[in-house]
Design goal:
Length: 439
């Protein structure tokens, strides 16, 4: 067993600092065979098994007091198929390493989220997404999946092979098995021009449909306690590349968006009364700018300020009402919200538990600085989101359970039936899955 386990067990903490757990055993498999052996061993020992990526989930989706599988040795590109335009990558590969490796090969994913610290399997299993008119989620770009199931066998699924598993496992929550490799659709690397500009919230809401349809990727950040937003439009470009200059990039992305922002968060946490003033200043600090670069340099940005987050997908047509209600709630609540609200969109997809499953969606994400009380704000926001049949991001704070999900996901029963088949003894169970999927 020594080859598959570090044998040590320590305390594991997630990135947001709100989940802590002590597994009985930690395993760092160097191959799929070693992982399968570790899964069989855990079953014999009567221990539950969970894989944990980079800990970027704010829920306890990866927590276990049983066997914790660390995939850091299962990394790298297995295969690039230029004819099919796919890349097969080991499950523990961080997105940032995949993006750099693909760019070196003249390739890129079509779309991605704004953080690239996560592992590919962690990001897809929780439904991580960016924003887009035609594309948004990482899982929707998957063409094939390999996973180790509860009996220790290795299962491959795609649209042709085990299609019913493929329909569910792309956003599998770690409930169906441990993902070991993912095949993504890729395309020749392209250029994106980003246009960032401040815009009043009232105008963004009035013109939201137009902004969304006229741009391939539209998103905006609204600063609570103000009527201000910062909008971002990303569209494909013929070039030439015009990256953000080093000094300007450092000033905007490091100094303002991370350094000064962090200081403002510390101040707001210590003296909540100053938050509205700080919000007004913050919301006018970033000026309009435009730049052109390869996709991952435009879609993603460093996030050094640690926070806790809740995000819900509401039907796209409900977005404007949702935001107006959120704004009214903040204004009358006496809450002091020091973090911008992020809004993105996604087209409907065909994945059973994707937050965009069978409906065009808009995402509203609320954040609080780590260490600031967030319950009152998140509870009030969640009340608004659920009134619009919102679906929470699987990796972000929420209080919903299986009964709720059975109502908002038309294919919920299909997923749980597949889980009964693939993991009848609930080897991959934990408290979080018990709550969101039921017994």
């Amino acid at each position: 067993m020594s080859s598959t386990a570090s044998g040590k067990s320590g305390t594991w903490r997630n990135w947001g600092g709100n989940v802590t757990v002590r597994p009985a055993r930690e395993v760092v498999p160097a191959s799929v065979d070693e992982l399968a052996a570790a899964v069989r061993q855990a079953a014999e020992d009567g221990l539950k098994v969970k894989a944990v990526g980079s800990g970027h989930s704010f829920t306890s989706i990866a927590a276990t007091d049983g066997v914790s599988v660390r995939p850091q040795l299962l990394t790298g590109i297995r295969n690039i198929d230029r004819k099919a335009m796919t890349v097969t990558v080991e499950a523990g590969t961080p997105l940032k390493r995949l993006n750099v490796a693909l760019a070196r090969e003249g390739l890129s994913l079509t779309n991605m989220g704004d953080i690239m610290e996560q592992t590919v399997s962690g990001a897809t299993s929780t439904g991580t997404h960016g924003t887009g008119r035609e594309s948004a989620s990482l899982a929707a770009q998957i063409r094939e999946l390999e996973l180790v199931t509860a009996d220790g066998s290795v299962l491959t699924c795609s649209e042709k092979e085990n299609p019913e598993v493929f329909a569910a496992a792309r956003v599998g929550l770690g409930a169906l098995g441990i993902v070991t490799a993912i095949t993504f659709a890729v395309e020749p690397v392209f250029l994106l021009t980003a246009r960032e500009e401040p815009m009043p919230l009232d105008r963004v809401l009035a013109e939201f449909d137009q902004l969304r349809t006229e741009n391939e990727h539209f998103e905006f950040y609204w600063f609570p306690h103000t009527g201000n937003t910062n909008t971002k439009r990303n569209n494909r470009s013929a070039g030439p590349p015009q990256p953000v200059g080093q000094l300007a990039g450092w000033f905007e992305d490091e100094f303002l968006s991370n350094g000064v922002f962090h200081a403002a968060q510390l101040l707001g946490r210590a003296v909540p009364a100053v938050v509205p003033t700080v919000a007004r200043i913050s919301s006018t600090a970033l000026s309009a700018r435009s730049y052109t670069d390869i996709p991952y340099k435009v879609f993603t940005s460093p996030r050094r300020v640690r926070f806790v987050e809740m995000e819900y997908a509401v039907p796209r047509e409900a977005l404007v009402d949702t935001l107006r209600e959120l704004r009214a709630m903040v204004d009358r609540s006496g809450l002091r919200v020091n973090f911008p609200v992020e809004v993105r969109t996604a087209p409907a997809d065909d994945i059973a538990l994707s937050t965009a499953s069978a409906r065009d969606s808009a995402y509203v994400a609320v954040h609080m600085f780590r260490g600031t009380p967030y319950q009152a704000y998140f509870t009030a926001a969640e009340r608004i989101f659920t009134a619009h049949e919102g679906r929470p991001h699987w990796g972000k704070v929420h209080t919903r359970d299986a009964d709720y999900f059975a109502e908002v996901y038309p294919r919920f029963g299909e997923f749980t039936a597949l889980r009964d088949r693939l993991d009848p003894d609930r080897l991959f169970q934990n408290d979080y899955l018990r709550r969101v999927l039921g017994q």
